[in-house]
Fold this sequence. Notes:
Arc Repressor Mutant, subunit A; HTH_MetalResp_TranReg (chains A, B); disordered N terminus; DNA-binding (chains A, B)
Amino acid sequence: xxxxxxxxxxxxxxxxxxxxxxxxxxxxxxxxxxxxxxxxxxxxxxxxxxxxxxxxxxxxxxxxxxxxxxxxxxxxxxxxxxxxxxxxxxxxxxxxxxxxxxxxxxxxxxxxxxxxxxxxxxxxx
Amino acid sequence: xxxxxxxxxxxxxxxxxxxxxxxxxxxxxxxxxxxxxxxxxxxxxxxxxxxxxxxxxxxxxxxxxxxxxxxxxxxxxxxxxxxxxxxxxxxxxxxxxxxxxxxxxxxxxxxxxxxxxxxxxxxxx
Lengths: 125, 125
């Protein structure tokens, strides 16, 4: 995910002379966002900007050992397995959830570092 | 905005026996979200889940006195006034920006409390 490694950008735009903090952790209210950073964060925010996906994340977080399979999630959200799997894929693709296949099921857990990064990004200066 | 006043929900669903903390501040990873809370937060997240709107918020935050009019914002984002006004209206409607009319211009500033609430909501438990 490019928000975790901006070496390419630093190399190609040396005139910006970003500090270590800029490169690591852009913040919404500290300085004007670059288009790259705005696109990175918009993509992650889009993945959670949906009531069903927010509920899926909160159900996984509240589940035993903070992980769950699709079979645990369909009933609580009242949706079929294909729909739930579709929402979970969007969250995995955005980096908000991790997917691990064990036996016949895939288990989903939180990528706490990504949620933490999003939280810090939005916190007002 | 309903996330700031859940008295109706408390009255109509006494069996949930929410604590003061639950009523005030639902959190994504503390307990399963209600549909109402998920819809509230999804609506606010949608307003910022767009690269142009993220850049507008960051430009306003970085502007003198943390407020700006449309005339300050069109050049930095490279878009016309109607498009920028449309994006700003979405952010005002979601509660992320405040709009104040002075003379012929409207001035936009951050609603820091809403960004703070969003940041706290997403922070992993």
